[in-house]
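ok so for the tutorial part 2 we go from a plain amino acid sequence to predicted structure tokens. step 1 is just haveing the sequence, like this:
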Amino acid sequence: METVGRYGATYLADGPWDYAYTGPADHPILSRVDQGGLARGVDLAELPEVVKFLVVGASDMAGLAEAGRGLGLTVDHHLDEAIIDVAPGATTKWEALTSLGIGEYAAFGNDINDADLLRNAERAVRVGAHPDLDEVAHITVPPDPEAVAAEISLLARAAAVGPRPRPGRVVQAGSSNCS
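step 2 — the prediction. this is what the tokens look like for a chain of 179 residues:
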């Protein structure tokens, strides 16, 4: 938290149920937090643990991201949203799944912090058009709830029929990747 203070950072700290938020009231992230109105906004000290930490503002976002990496944290700087996503150590979503013994899964992702998750998925669905996910997505759907729901329905129907071979990767022009 010393580094957060040094950069004058504002943040969203997500706990197991409640959250702490110090950013501006009009930040777009608030529209995606607690959409059901079930959690409480509390002081950071009231959270029993922090499961996700997003920096929504700082005097030097790039400097803060680099400082976090220097502390050994996993830091994803989402330039398009001006958010820094911070996780402990070298933790990725894929590493979290493997630590739970989950090796075969379908995944949906929309940003750079989803790259490992999608790269290792049996079925990798990119939501939106983030260019850093071009090489790892098997399919891309528009970033709207109906498109995501339709793809989930397709996956559910396919799972009911039984396993199918993993689709081949698309080879881009000039690429020597033949997998």
